Structures are given as structure tokens and as C-alpha cells.
Amino acid sequence: MADPTTVTAAFLGLLEGLTEFIPVSSTGHILLAGHFLGFESKGKTFEVVIQLGAVLAVLSVYAAKLWAVFSTAHRDPQALRFIVAVALAFFPAVVIGVLAHDFIKTVLFETPMLIAVMLILGGIVLLLVDRMALTPRYAEAQDVPLGVALKIGFIQCLAMIPGVSRSGSTIVGALLLGVSKRGAAEFSFFLSMPTMAGAFAYDLWKNRDVLDAGALTEIAVGFVVAFVAAVFVVRVLLDYVSRHGYRLFGWWRIIVGVIALVALLLGF
């Protein structure tokens, strides 16, 4: 019979992979699920590190496109500008993430009520933005100007509050700044790679002294399941949002947030 902790790690990995790239807050879902399932990882490292599985999913799906961008950057100004745009968008998360790391992990990650409320508020914002008659100025992720990319990077930092959603904040920010629905989702994919890889490396280093073989096993299981699930999501998400927008995810957030809030108020 499988170890219950391993089964829980696999379930949380599945939750991570399915929710990382849609604007519903994967971290919020994992922290709430962990709270109700009684799952406690050392230093809350599991919840951050398994995100690398989702990063590798994006790398695998976009490997050809990434190679085309980086291999032509020395002679293609648009490719070089796109690399710089993603780097600029990543920079605010580096600074704020390092400065606020301990507060985020020891206070915000330990406040399930806050997570539930942010899920609801984020869902309302997503519904409102999806109903706006926005006129896109930038059809593709590669068209995003440097100044707009930096603004998206600052908006992404709101996702350091669990329940806000990294993909949700970047997508909403990009939409409001003139990027198309498909372009906003794709820019969020590319920005996730340095952001999540950086969070993974920094968190692993910060908690290197508290990880044991059991914790590493949980992380490995969650990592693999997250990778497989995220590959599926990345392959289908762009076409879905191009046709249907983000309304479904707004209602998803509100329903999950309300259920979690009621359960917390009842003492679960």
C-alpha cells in the first residue's frame, strides 16, 4: 500500500501542474489543500520546489521556440528585445522576493484565511477584466515593449501574496496594458521560467539544512506529477483562452475561495 504522505504529495503535484499556468493561484490551492489534508512540508519548501516541474513542462513544450529566439538573438533585434523584455519583467521579483522571502514563507504562507479571501477578490477582478472591451495593441508575446514588460514584472510581484496567482497577475496586467488574451498568456508562460526557477533555487538553498530523505521523496513525487499535468495544460490553454477568455477561471477562484472560507470559519 502506498505511503499516505506520498499519495498526498502526488495529489498536490497534480494540483500544481493543473493550476500553475491558469490564473487561479496554484500556490493558494496547494496551501489550502495541504491545510485541510494535514500536510506540512519542512520550511514550506515542497510547495515552491515542485513548481520546477511546471517550469520544465513549459521548456519542453516551447523548446523549439526558445531555441529559435536564443540562437538568433545575435542577429535578430526582435529576438534580442524579447529576451531583454522577459529579463526586465523578471527583475522586480528578484529584488522583492529576496527582501520579503522570510515574511512570505512564515506569515503569508501560514494564513489560509488570507488565501481564501485573495482567491475570491482575484476571481472578481478576473471577471471584471474579462468583460472589458479592451483593444489589444500587442498581438503576440514577442511584441511587448520593454516598458510594458517592466510594468508587468512589478504587477507579477502581487502574486507573492498566496491566492493572488502569478499567472493571474501577469495576465491581468498584460491585458490592461494592451496585450491580446493569447499574447498575455504566452508572455506569462515565458516569464514563469526565470521566475519559478529562481524561486526554486533560492528556496532550496534557504532550506537546505531542514530537508531530509523523506522531504526529498515527497518533492520528487510532486515534481514528476506536476510536470506531466502542466504539459497538458500548456498545450491546451492558449487555444482555450483565445476562444473563451478567462471567465471560467474567475468563477473557479470565487467558488474555491468561498468553500475554503466557509470551511475555515467552521473550524476545519
Automatic annotation (TrEMBL):
<comment type="similarity">
    <text>Belongs to the UppP family.</text>
</comment>
<keyword id="KW-0961">Cell wall biogenesis/degradation</keyword>
<comment type="function">
    <text>Catalyzes the dephosphorylation of undecaprenyl diphosphate (UPP). Confers resistance to bacitracin.</text>
</comment>
<keyword id="KW-0378">Hydrolase</keyword>
<dbReference type="GO" id="GO:0008360">
    <property type="term" value="P:regulation of cell shape"/>
</dbReference>
<feature type="transmembrane region" description="Helical">
    <location>
        <begin position="250"/>
        <end position="267"/>
    </location>
</feature>
<dbReference type="GO" id="GO:0050380">
    <property type="term" value="F:undecaprenyl-diphosphatase activity"/>
</dbReference>
<dbReference type="InterPro" id="IPR003824">
    <property type="entry name" value="UppP"/>
</dbReference>
<feature type="transmembrane region" description="Helical">
    <location>
        <begin position="49"/>
        <end position="70"/>
    </location>
</feature>
<feature type="transmembrane region" description="Helical">
    <location>
        <begin position="216"/>
        <end position="238"/>
    </location>
</feature>
<keyword id="KW-0812">Transmembrane</keyword>
<keyword id="KW-0046">Antibiotic resistance</keyword>
<dbReference type="GO" id="GO:0071555">
    <property type="term" value="P:cell wall organization"/>
</dbReference>
<keyword id="KW-1133">Transmembrane helix</keyword>
<dbReference type="GO" id="GO:0046677">
    <property type="term" value="P:response to antibiotic"/>
</dbReference>
<keyword id="KW-1003">Cell membrane</keyword>
<feature type="transmembrane region" description="Helical">
    <location>
        <begin position="184"/>
        <end position="204"/>
    </location>
</feature>
<keyword id="KW-0133">Cell shape</keyword>
<keyword id="KW-0573">Peptidoglycan synthesis</keyword>
<feature type="transmembrane region" description="Helical">
    <location>
        <begin position="113"/>
        <end position="134"/>
    </location>
</feature>
<dbReference type="GO" id="GO:0009252">
    <property type="term" value="P:peptidoglycan biosynthetic process"/>
</dbReference>
<keyword id="KW-0472">Membrane</keyword>
<protein>
    <recommendedName>
        <fullName>Undecaprenyl-diphosphatase</fullName>
        <ecNumber>3.6.1.27</ecNumber>
    </recommendedName>
</protein>
<dbReference type="GO" id="GO:0005886">
    <property type="term" value="C:plasma membrane"/>
</dbReference>
<feature type="transmembrane region" description="Helical">
    <location>
        <begin position="82"/>
        <end position="101"/>
    </location>
</feature>
<dbReference type="Pfam" id="PF02673">
    <property type="entry name" value="BacA"/>
</dbReference>
